[in-house]
């Protein structure tokens, strides 16, 4: 008995362990096949280039809520953003890159961002989504199935929808449970216990929806949930480890050889690990589909085109049948008129000595 057979036999003793081992091996195989580290570096680079327009576009729209929320709430939102981001980024990157942008955007609405600059941010900010859609499609084994124009339009629509969704949800997240509990009646403040589980659940649902949209060959939406859970887990753990490591290598407490580039390097490294987390989640979904097959669904636009084509075909058939009936209708009326006329005129009665070729009138019907 070989090593592989022995290992399979030992794993099969525990229910579900053999399938879990096969899933882990399949995920590792997909990551190695499609060069997950290189794709993550590509996605992280374009995400770094798209980060300024993305932040300006999102916070520029959220900044208009500052007059409605009041200066105290805006200050609390800024403090919460700095507090949450400090768990993943270093103090230098927060001080030099993130917080100046947040303060300038949340202090008031940014018309230069939301007007002409907003249109430019839509184009440049969607580049990261375009690359991420392409890399996720590659991990699922569907690379190159979308055209350039179709992929670009999809990334633009996702980016625009993400800005609208983020402008509504991000303030609720960064405000924090303390302020939200003050807005609720005393009898409902116990719901704040579910605040962070709800945030995590919404993140998983968003990632699963992104995986579902990114794959040209659509699978059932539930098949993307495991990848969303794994992506969030890897992202949180990797961010904490990265924060600990970078705080001791390029942070303020040690002599950094990167100098003024340290903040940008930290942000890019964090985006790189975010890309790795997303791609490993996509690899998990791809491996699960290969192990346990699921029927692929036709994309919505293809089903819509097929439905419209079937409707046009049925309409043409009905039109042809109607036109054919209209053409045959006068002939039918003439035939029925001839038939009525023939019934109205009695056929001549032949005399007893007449032949069929020489009909003679019956003398009994003669007048007088």
TrEMBL record:
Pfam families: Virul_fac_BrkB. It is a multi-pass membrane protein. Residues 339-368 are annotated as: Disordered. One of its GO terms (cellular component) is plasma membrane. Keywords: Cell membrane, Membrane, Transmembrane, Transmembrane helix. Residues 357-368 have a biased composition (Basic and acidic residues). It is found in: Cell membrane. It comes from the Bacteria. The chain crosses the membrane at residues 43-65, 113-133, 154-174, 194-213, 225-245, 257-284. Its main location: membrane. PANTHER family: INNER MEMBRANE PROTEIN YHJD (PTHR30213), UPF0761 MEMBRANE PROTEIN YIHY (PTHR30213:SF0). This is YihY/virulence factor BrkB family protein. It comes from Flexivirga endophytica.
